Every structure is written in structure tokens, then in C-alpha cells.
Amino acid sequence: MSRQYLSWSIAQLEDEFERAQDSGDRAAIERVVSELGFRTTPKARSLRQAVQRFMGAAARPGGEQRGAAKPPPTAKSGPTQKPPHNTNGKPARKPTAEQQQAIDQFQHGGSVKINAYAGTGKTSTLEFLAQSTSRRGQYIAFNRDIVRDAKEKFPNTVNCSTSHGLAFKATPSAYRNNSDKMTKRVNANQLAEMLNLRRWEVDGRHVLQPRSQGYLILDTLRRYMQSADAELAAHHVTRHGSLLAAPEATMQAVTEFALHGAKHVWGRMRAETDPMPLGHDGYLKLWALSNPKIAADFILLDEAQDTNPIVLDVLRKQSAQMIYVGDKYQQIYEWRGAVNAMGKIETQGETYLTTSFRFGPAIAEWASKLLDLLGEKRPLRGNVAVKSRVGRVEPRTILARTNASTIAAIIECLDEGKKPHLVGGADELMEMLRGVQDLKEGKQSTVPDFFGFDKWQQVVEFTKSGEGDHLLSFVNLVEGRGERQLMWALNRTVDEERSDLTISTAHKAKGREWSTVRLTDDFLRSRPGKPANGPDPAEVRLFYVALTRAKEAVEVPQNILSLIR
Known about the structure:
InterPro entries: DNA_helicase_UvrD-like_C (IPR014017), DNA_helicase_UvrD/REP (IPR000212), P-loop_NTPase (IPR027417), UvrD-like_ATP-bd (IPR014016). A hairpin with a 5-residue loop joins strand 4 (200-201) and strand 5 (207-208). The strands form 3 sheets. The protein has a 6-stranded parallel β-sheet with strand order 3-2-6-7-1-8. The protein has a 6-stranded parallel β-sheet with strand order 9-14-13-10-12-11, with helices on both faces. Helices cover 44% and strands 10% of the residues. The model is unreliable at 62-91 (pLDDT under 50). By secondary structure, it is α/β, with parallel strands linked by helices. It folds into 4 domains: 10-67, no CATH class; 99-167 and 296-353, 3-Layer(aba) Sandwich (Rossmann fold), CATH 3.40.50; 186-276, no CATH class; 380-564, no CATH class.
């Protein structure tokens, strides 16, 4: 069999699987699983297993593919009858009192917010909701892995998809039939060549090379496409790197350039026959601008505390019953433009899940102290059947606040003769280190933190100012170890199943859990420009996420414990 998908990325293969799954295109599914047989990355193996599970289920007697016609519910079933079994054939569990409150609110009708603290059974609660009705449902999550898991658990009356998946299927065929137009990406260098950009001396102190100009245009477009705005505007242009301290006249010139370039590129992206790729954010934006109607009686939005404004805007316009599920205290992507729907949206009903199944009272007590710092008076209660503690541990996992602490933990692990695994892979950190190399060679980098700098020494000097404080630990690590040694260490990370120690930033650890966790000492530090009267709420939320990844034991540095006693 020829490798039709040889040049496709894992993300493109996932999109093709979702399309084929919904349309019943078994030949395409077989081509996807064949191509995945040649791939060796953890993501490829995970996707291959999901595809094979789907093919196995569809092949069994009575197996049903999503997209196949389903018989209408009988009159006997009624809109609120609860099935006696889960979709996996096991007897249905009995909901807790808090989960039952959520079910009752859902069945009462109207929009509902379900505030689910860390480890409190959010997923099982959503299953209960889906199984309590025969109405058509739509489950939406940002993460593909979560959606794949939901497809195996939810009844066939509920369609499970990412927001991008919904947009992809609704995109006109003139775009959708051209896979390069839909899913390819243009990087800053390629865009600079396509637009014939040249070196630009903005003022006496700020010079932007073509690749930096290309990055600026792409970043402006990205922020526009993730926003709820219909038109590109000045607020979609943000300051990066050397521009953080640039005078207003310079920033005005940069903004005008970025807007002009972004409008030109967006016009080409929308043109069906233009080779400029639309990309994932592009077709999501086109879908949102078309004022789509989601074919469902109710919509479940998972992880609603970190929702793209564009997705939230689409959902606000739906006539279906809206259920927002998440934990507003786990919002950790506001820096990326995400909106905390749990704090922003007004609903007709609201309920809480406050008892964790993940850990016991000891960890819950410290998590509740963090909630108190954030103004929440409802404590997080631990599972009394689970023994947990806060103290010294021999960790299976180390969670860090910064990239610098993450790399330092990897080096320490290697020095001890252990094999480290880095959650999410090393691509982002390697890109930063290649950016360091570019600057040392006198070339500008497209790494956002290094934007507009011509030399590495300029970055070093920048960290001594208030605006560059967030880079200080990374710069010190590079200066002390050298970027080549750091790249050497990252290249020696292994798959999780072969590792002795799992290492992650708190951001990448979201949604995961481990038996024993050690936290690094760089949490709860003040950010530049933030008042010093107490911890920054964004930092408290991130620490809350990190602390609640542990099931049995978590080690917290004393300097951090003293801040929250």
C-alpha cells in the first residue's frame, strides 16, 4: 500500500481520522492506521491505539460507527430516563450528592455552570449528564486526547469533538478538499519570502529583520483569529521582547505595519485558490464568522475556565441548553488570550463539585488554603479513603514553574544516572535554545521572548531591567551551562514508560495525576508590574494546579509553604 499520508503531521492524521470516523469512510481509516504503523512517537502510538480500538468496536456485532444512522428513542425511554448501564457495559455507578445536584440542574433545563474543583469527578459527572437524557448532545473540549476518551464513554446520542473538529466539518468543500490549504502552516521565514520583506530600521534603536516582521504579522493574525472580533484591530498587535520598552512612536509604527501585513495575509488565506494556507486557526475563524448553528439540544463545554474567546462567542449565540464545566481556579492560560468562562458567564443554574476522589484530606487542606487566597470560602474536601501527605517524598514526578527549572531538573536527573521523561516533549525548549544560538550568531530569532533583539548580550542586559525579569532564570542557566549542554540534556529524555522520573512544567501537567510529586521552589513568585501585597492570583492558580496533581504525597519547598500557612 502506498503511503498517501507520508508527509502529513500527527495533527493532520487526527483530523483525517475524525473526518473519516464521522462519515463512515473505513478506507480512509485503514490508510490512517497504516501510516501510523510507520510512526514511532508517543503521540503516534496513542493515536494508532485509538484508531484500532474504534475499528475493533465497529467490527463487533452491533458495533456502531459515529456518523451511522441511529434509531430514534422510543416513547418509553422519555427525555430523562437514565440507562441502566454505562456505554462500556459495566453497571452504572451511583452519583454522589453533589453530582446528583448537577444532574437535577441539567434536567431542570436552562444554562448551568458546574464548578468542579481538582479531582472531583468532572468527567464522570459529564457521563451522568449525558446518560440521563435521550436528547442530542454535543461535547466540546480543546484537547484531542480528552475528546477521544469521551467518545469511548459517552452514549451515541452525544457527539464528541474539539471546536476545531466542528469547524473543520463545516468548512466549505472548496477549502476542505485541499488538505494543504486547510492544515499546513507558514512559518515566519516562509512568510518573509512570500511577502518579499526587507530589513526595516524602525528607529535608531529598533531594527526588525524580515523573519521578525514575518513573526509579527503571524502573531497578530493568531491573536485576531482566536478573538471574538470580526475585524483586525490595533489591540491584536502585542509587544514582545525588545518592544516591551519601546517608545510609543515606535510601537505605533510597528502596529501600523503589522496590521497592514495581517490584513493582506488574511485576505489571501480566505481566497480559495491562493496557496497561502488557511491553517487550523483560520478555518476556525471562518466557521465562527459564519454564525454557525450547532445541531444539538444541549452542549457540554469542558475545561471552560480556559476557553478561546472565539469559541465562547460561538457558544453564546446557540439556542441549545449550555452546560459550562470547569474550575475557575485552574485558569492558567490567560497569558495566551484564554477567557475564564466560569467567572465571566452568567447562567440560570450553578452547582459545585468539592470532594476530590484523587487525594486525601492532607493535600486538600493545603489546596483549600490556596482557594482561600483567591477569595473562595468553599473548601476542597479530600477523599477520606485515600491516605495522602504533604512532606518529603521520593518523587515519581517533578513539577516546575519555569522552563529553567524544568531543564535544571532534567540535568540533575541525568547526573544521578536516571532516565528523565519530559511531558509534552522538548520541542519548545529546543526552539528557545536554537533562538539563543541564532542571537549568538547575530541573527534575530522568532522566539517571542527574544523578539527584536540582534544579539544574545542584548537579552542578558534586558533581564536586568524590570521588563525582562521573567527571563532571568533562563538566561542564568544558559550563561552557566551553555546552550549546547542544555540541548544535549534535552536530547536524552525518553518516553514516559521507559523513564525513571517524569518532569513537567505545571502548565503541561494540567489534566494529569501522579502518585508522588515534588514541586520546585520557583512557584508563587511575583511577576513584573504586579503589586507585592500578596501572591499574584495567576501564580496562585498555577500553584493550585501543580499541588493537586499528586494522589498520595507531595513535597513542597518550605519557602512556599511559609507563604500560604
